[in-house]
Amino acid sequence: QSLVLMLFLCFITLIIFVFVYFFFLMIRRPPRSTLSSSSAASDVYKRQVHSLPELGWDGCVLNNQIAGKVSASDMCKLDRVDMSALGRRVRASLSSDPAAEQFRQWTRITCPLDDELQIAPFVSGNEVLNSYDLVAVRPGTMGLFAKCCNSLEIDIISLDLSAKLPFTLRPQLVSAAVARGVTFEICYSEALQDSSSRRMQMSNGQMLTRATRGRGIILSSKARQPLETRNVWDVTNLGFLYGLDPSAARAAVSTNVTEMLRRAASRKEDAIQLTA
User: Is-contact 138 113, C-beta < 8 A?
Assistant: First the structure.
């Protein structure tokens, strides 16, 4: 019986590996002034992306984190990293484009929300935000967090879980966000800092898991260098530390991301039709 059970578990693991896509979120772009093709920052950036297929990832998100209000200068200028030298082709089913058979790369903008004056671009289709595949926000007040959950046109709510949160994660607000298809992000690299930040990050992550009941969570990296990247199974196992069960931890790097990308593409298409 133990042999049969072992074979069954191996079969299930194989099915998961073959038919589930894993996405690495997110690669932080260095300041554009340091990204010349000959710069050390550019080399680290490319090396980090090139390492991902070997770690079991089928795609990644390149992130531009801005410091203030969204402006025309924040239009997406992120360049996908050339992966042709690796000679690795991976599965993809999110697009009919032939290029979809290669390692996929998406773009993302992460915006702070500390003032009511900053929310206008997130209410209706905005050209700058639509130039990215994904839109993430970091709300700084309870009122702004409530608007992110209930109405703003966003894909990701990203919280600094390594510090004391400036508001309470009310289950009714969190449930409203999840029902709309908005995801909540846990950045595991924050747990690689000092022990105090690590304890706070784990505690807040577990609180978020309880508030969402394990739904609508994505596990992200916020990695700035190759040493901060982890393979698929390491990141999945980290999910257990945040209170996610095995199924939810796996979904946090696979199916939750797939659904988020599909919803984001649909949102962008709707926004373009409204402004046309």
Answer: yes
3-state secondary structure of 269: helix
- In order, the DSSP letters of 159-196 are --TTS--SS---HHHHHHHHHHT-EEEEEGGGGGS-HH
Task: Give the whole-angstrom CA distance, residue 155 versus residue 135.
Answer: 5
Rounded CA-CA distance 238/244 in Å is: 9
Bridge partners for 143 per DSSP: none
Question: How far is the first Cα of the chain from the last one, in angstroms, to the nearest whole number?
Answer: 63
Q: What six digits make up the tokens of 119?
A: 């929310």
Rounded CA separation 37/172 (Å): 47
For residue 214, pLDDT beyond 50: yes
Structure letter (DSSP) for residue 82? P
231: Cβ contacts below 8 Å, ≥ 6 apart:
55, 56, 57
> Could you tell me which residues are beta bridge partners of residue 183?
156
98 has pLDDT over 90: no
Q: Cα angle vertex 42, ends 36, 45, to 5°?
A: 150
| Predicted confidence (pLDDT) per residue in 72-88, tens digit | 999 998 888 888 777 65
- Please tell me the predicted confidence (pLDDT) of residue 2: 55
Lowest mean pLDDT among 25-34, 66-75, 122-131, 206-215: 25-34
CB 218 within 8 A of CB 260: yes
pLDDT, mean of residues 20-48: 60
The span from the CA of 129 to the CA of 147, in Å, is 17
> Is-contact 40 235, C-beta < 8 A?
no
